[in-house]
Amino acid sequence: MSKLSSLTPEEKAALMEEAKAEIFNSMSEKDAIKIQRNKYKEVVNDTIPGLLEELKDISALLSKVKTKVFNELKTLIELKAEVFGKDNNILQSHTFTTEKGDRISVGYRMTDDWDDTVSAGLQKVHDFIQSLAKDDNSAVLVKAIMRLLAKDKKGNLQSSRVLQLKQLAEETGNEGFIDAVGIIHAAYRPRRSAQFISASYRDENLVTVEIPLDITSSEILQPTEEKTAA
Asked: Where does the source fall among the domains of life (predicted)?
């Protein structure tokens, strides 16, 4: 690997500036730009592989720790079910908190999903809408229904809104509308997506501090913090 790998970001930037000055002093602008771009590509090719290796190491470590956390908490989850009489097949997440206030939560993210009978319920709702009189009160009701039936970005109905729709149907007292929403509600088939872990602790001031467990939420250290961490 090129000796560039041993340079700091500041030294690499200085090298680029030095190369730029030499190039523009001895060549035409067109040739200088071409060589400058090649120098840039060289720095990229030298920098990225090392960073990727570090990211792969972090990813592997996260997977290892995640597996350890789930395996070690499995016993606690089973004990919790025995002591408190909870059905682990129903619960989608579990939280464990110490007397100090330190906390770890594990479980599954849930995604809304529906079986094929949902279309029958939706059709009955639309039939109900068509049966309404064309007055201001009906227009308000139709607007509320359509808002609650609006799908998310992935094209799915939202379970929280279906619950609101069920309440709205009961308030109208219309049996057809109530039955239609009942069909939709019965078609709900939530599915598990990704497993998750969240954790927090109480600091010396008893303030709850969330532990960032993904690279997006992790903070970028300032230069002084980097030296301390090293």
From this structure: Bacteria
